[in-house]
Every structure is written in C-alpha cells, then in structure tokens.
Automatic annotation (TrEMBL):
<dbReference type="GO" id="GO:0005524">
    <property type="term" value="F:ATP binding"/>
</dbReference>
<dbReference type="InterPro" id="IPR027417">
    <property type="entry name" value="P-loop_NTPase"/>
</dbReference>
<keyword id="KW-0238">DNA-binding</keyword>
<dbReference type="GO" id="GO:0043138">
    <property type="term" value="F:3'-5' DNA helicase activity"/>
</dbReference>
<feature type="domain" description="Helicase C-terminal">
    <location>
        <begin position="301"/>
        <end position="438"/>
    </location>
</feature>
<dbReference type="GO" id="GO:0016787">
    <property type="term" value="F:hydrolase activity"/>
</dbReference>
<keyword id="KW-0067">ATP-binding</keyword>
<feature type="domain" description="Helicase ATP-binding">
    <location>
        <begin position="120"/>
        <end position="272"/>
    </location>
</feature>
<dbReference type="GO" id="GO:0006270">
    <property type="term" value="P:DNA replication initiation"/>
</dbReference>
<keyword id="KW-0547">Nucleotide-binding</keyword>
<dbReference type="InterPro" id="IPR014001">
    <property type="entry name" value="Helicase_ATP-bd"/>
</dbReference>
<dbReference type="GO" id="GO:0006302">
    <property type="term" value="P:double-strand break repair"/>
</dbReference>
<dbReference type="Pfam" id="PF00271">
    <property type="entry name" value="Helicase_C"/>
</dbReference>
<dbReference type="GO" id="GO:0003677">
    <property type="term" value="F:DNA binding"/>
</dbReference>
<dbReference type="InterPro" id="IPR006935">
    <property type="entry name" value="Helicase/UvrB_N"/>
</dbReference>
<dbReference type="InterPro" id="IPR001650">
    <property type="entry name" value="Helicase_C-like"/>
</dbReference>
<protein>
    <submittedName>
        <fullName>ComF operon protein A</fullName>
    </submittedName>
</protein>
Amino acid sequence: MNLHTFLSGRRLLRSEIPFLFEELNQPFIQTERAISFNKGKPQCLRCGNQDRSLFGEHLCTKCQQMCVYCRHCIQLRKVSSCEKLYTWTGPEIVFPQRENSLQWQGQLSTGQAKASAAVVQAIEQNEEILVWAVCGAGKTEVLFRGLEQAFSQGKRVLLSTPRTDVVQELSPRLRRSFPHTHISTLYGGSKDREPGAQLVLSTTHQAMRFYRAFDVVIIDEVDAFPFSYDQSLQWAVSQAKKLESAMIYLSATPSRKLVTTPNLQVIKIPKRFHGHPLPQPRFEWCGNWPKQLSKNKLPPALHHWIQAHPGKPLLLFVPSLSVLKTVSSLLTIPHHAVHSQEPNRHSYVEAFRNGKVSLLVTTTILERGVTFANVQVAVLGAENQIFTEAALVQIAGRVGRSSLAPTGDVLFFHFGITVEMKKARSHIQLMNQEGERL
C-alpha cells in the first residue's frame, strides 16, 4: 500500500504511520499540533475534547519536557501536545463507479420502500435525514438501495455505530449483500485494519482517525451509549465527513432533541417488515429481588418463567455486572453470561444463537443490534434507573423479529413499576397503533 492510499481521508499520529520520515516530507502532507491552545485552554484535535479535567500532564519521553496529553481518547493511543497529526491534502482516492453492486433478492415492505427512497434521495442531494424505524423494521435493508446508488457514483461511505456487537452483526450481512465492494470493519481489536475501503463499517470511536473522508455518513443506533452522551464522538463524526456530504441517522428510539432538529427530515417506519405488531411487555412483581439474591436465592417468579418456556432460547437482562455474576452463580441450568468486559462475549453470543445453550444472561450490552430466532426475553429489576424508556423498548424489540416467529414473551420483573416502564409500554402501543393505520 502506498502513502496516498494509507493516509488519504485520515488524521493520524506519526507513530500510526508505517512510512519513513523522508516519505512524509512532501507538499501533499499537512501537519498540525495534536493539541491546540486558545488563551491557554487546550483542545484535542483528534477527539475535540476541551474539558480541562480530561487533560493531564506528564514528562514526555519524546521531547523530554512536561507535555499536556488528552485522557479522553487515550484508548486510541496517547496524544501529547508536542505531537502532530498528519493529513493528506493531495488527490483523493478514486473508487470504481460500479453499477448493480447489490446482490440481495429480498423485497421491501411498504414502509421500508418509502424510507429507502428517502435514503437514496438524501445520498443524491447531500441531505440530512432520520429514519425512525421500530425494532425489527429491517432498517439495514432500507440502506441497500442508497448504498448501491452511492457506489455507482464512486462515493465513499462510513456506516458507524456505537456498539462493537452491532458492528460484528452487520459486517457479514453487508459483505453478503455487496460481495464485490471493498469493505473494511474497524473496532477495537478487529483484525481487519484496511483503511482505504469504499465502505467503512466501524464503531463511532474509530471515526476519530478519519478526516474529511466520506461522501455519506450513516450513524446506526444514534441514540445508543456512548455516542448519544459523548460530544467528542459526535464531533469526530462531523470531522470524518466531507463538507458536502449526506448524513443519515437510524434509530428505533431517537431522542426528542434529534427528532425536533430544524431542517431534519424524519421518515418513520412504525411497522415491522413482516407486518406483525411489536410484542407488548408484561409487568410482573417479583418482590425484593436484591434481598433474595443476597440470600443466594433467585426470585421464584424467575424460576417459573424459565420453566414456562422449555426448548426456547431465553434472554435475561440484568441491571449490573454484580447482579449478573450473582444470578449466573445461582442458575443450575447450562447458560452463558455476557457483559462489556467479557473476553469471550462474541463466542458466547454465537453459542446462544446456534442453540448450544438455551439461556443467555446479559447486561444492557445486548439491548440492541442483535437478532436471535424465536427468543423470549425477561428483565430482572426493570425498575433500575439503567432501564430507561429507550432501553426497555430496545430490549422488547429483541422478540418476534423473524417472520417465522413473529410473536413471543417480553416480561419485566420488578420491585415497583417506574415511569420509564410505563413510557416504554406506551411507546410500543403507539407504534403499533400507527402501524395498524398503514
């Protein structure tokens, strides 16, 4: 790979560029301080951080001086004030204008087709739109015609999402649908590090390494943590897109702030692709479950739920890692337990998907972006503050996603009904009512 292909559309530290210094000494290479100062106030130009509390000082091994460094994006590699970021200002990468790149034979529903047309138009005219689609509406398929249109024009696309699990779920589907398109999948620990792909599928953190690279930027699960709470990730995405570009947001549970953004076109898909309504969650009081766990006992209601679904895959959400460990230790049936720090998370999820275990206990890490056939879902401690309206709607949306099994059980075990639980149930009811009117 040459320097042009490697660096075009990226903004990298010297230590991230595997080329000799002499090769970087040319007119098409532009450098800027990795951390700038305005009246003494620092800003990291990789992640946009301006929060003084997220900067530190250290004796730098590179310049042998005291340097300011950014703690906010340190997981990508330390950025110090003595370092520079390198960008390519020469000719852009020219991608093939490939016609008929889509190899997908499925049919879109009426709602999907309407949203698909809006996506195509947004890409053609560099517009900004939100596709508000219920869980299981098939929003990935809604993108296909738009992606095909972009590739036919030689455009470069970033499809970014906050969660690694969602990236891993999307990657094989996109590769099957666009087998002749150069696709790169980027997330922490991924083996695929090809930077010059026409379609880049990444976590939102990886967007920090790109600069004015993409003609089309698609943010899937735009409301998900950490993207929705982290202004640096939003800044990084804005830096990764070209000044003239299309911006497409996807979500089943967008924030009111996003929905009411001026000049943002909102396309709603209130019905699943198979036409069946969203499963309505049931509420069931299970007593003082934290006290029961402290006595090394599972709530009897949870036992009954597990026994009520023999032979079916069961997905149990819990509010924290400590609860997950306790519940897992008390279960007597074969199962896996997953959380954000579990190194075997991907293999455990695949084992559950392939039927090797029938019960998967999880934190909210699997609340969105994953699909399991005929799964039944329960939440233990649905009154916990981590289970917001959006989280509960997403969790309920894991059920009934397949046309072969369009229904299923969604049960919220609680020690007291919360406003968020009621709002989640109302949200689902309203979407179903809108879907019936189509």
